[in-house]
Amino acid sequence: MDYIDYYKILGISKSATESDIKKAYRKLARKYHPDLNPNNKEAELKFKQINEANEVLSNPENRKKYDEYGKDWKHAEEFEKAKQQQQYQRQQQGGFGQQGYSESEFSDFFESMFGGGTSGFSGRHEVGFKGQDYNAELQLNLTDVYTPQKQILTVNGKKIRLTIPAGIENDQVIKISGKGSPGLNGGPDGDLYIKFNIINNTDFRRDGANLYKEVTIDLYSAILGGEITVDTFKSKVKLKVKAGTVNNTKVKLKGKGFTKYKKNKEFGDLIITYKIEIPKNLSAKEKELFKELKKLRHGS
Q: What is the per-residue burial (b if ≥16 Cβ within 10 Å, else e) of 252-287?
């Protein structure tokens, strides 16, 4: 990873205050905002750099790490731990006693952290650090994840082929090992974390592997019973409506729900809720018939 001078990007000095950083960021963000620079790749890149610089420098803790470790500021804690461990080992061997590091010795140590070899450490191995993890977001429709999906993602210019398991949930995150930033000093590569944004493009409500749907039936079918055709996620089924069905009656269709995660041949259930439709705009004849039914029911 090349060194990026965040102070230069924002046009401020290293002694800039939090207020100076905020003002510089707002000014440049307005200037290079994509809405004001449509189809301008250079402005788009500049806008991303400005945001990155602000995220680091506006956070006092991150700024301190950046000032000390430069491009490797995200590994500051690992460097500190390694430095303490090396110091402890030398104290145990009588190399430093209680004096700690001299300027030149610390410089040698720092070189080993940044890939400068093993000088100053009597042949000790370089300390390797895991590369930075990457994060990505992938948007899919609910109908897309009913079955496994093969996708090709481009992350930092590299194409990554992956198979998305059926039944993946909204906001679920999966890890792809070793597809992040390269490791430091021979350390392992970072990982890629993909967050899924699943858009429900159906009239079903999903809860895990179970699906829910409201189905309207007419008053006469609810009273007398009958047969209706209902859409499941992948097909149609016929259902018998029992006579005397009341509003909000629920019917479970076993195995007609959504695919269970990573289990392509196992499915949840589909729960149907009946909503009884009251007839409107009755004709005079229909009103008379309902009055007759009322008299028969109540005897008056």
A: ebeebbbbbbeeeeebbebbbebebeeeeeeeeeee
